[in-house]
Design brief:
The protein is of the alpha/beta class. Helix content is about 20%, strand content about 35%. It contains 3 helices and 10 strands. The strands form 2 sheets. A 5-stranded mixed beta sheet has the order 3-2-1-9-10, covered by helices on one side.
Length: about 160
Amino acid sequence: MKLLILSDSHGELEKMRFAIHQEAPNAVFHLGDHDSDAALLCRQYPQLPIYYVSGNCDRLFPWSSASRIEELEGVRILAAHGHQYNVKYGHMNFYMAAREAGAKLALFGHTHEAFCESYEDLWLLNPGSCKGYGASYAVAYISDGQVVRCEIKYL
């Protein structure tokens, strides 16, 4: 299964659409700061599962939350914008939350800086921001209950 991970779009719908068409993912995660962009993608791509959370710049729609846990193909995924874990000052709080949740893939945004590291059986992944110069997104591949690999791509 191929996952497309987006964050901090701040109204940049074209780059998100480009990434969807470029990658042809099985599912998309949007990690906030403009969860309304994710809601628009849901309407534009009704056949594509799109999971999203709200960021610190969002109004927190009644149907959206600041974090969520999903399980796809046997992989538990923690998705959060990251501000509630103070990720701008380090990843330890988020890492610990992911361990507590039993996640194998932990997705966060907020910093606008791409980050991709594996710690034994846990991947921490920040796709960066899909807005502006140096815009980026991430792709994660999962199979047989494992995260096979993750990568950052630039727009």
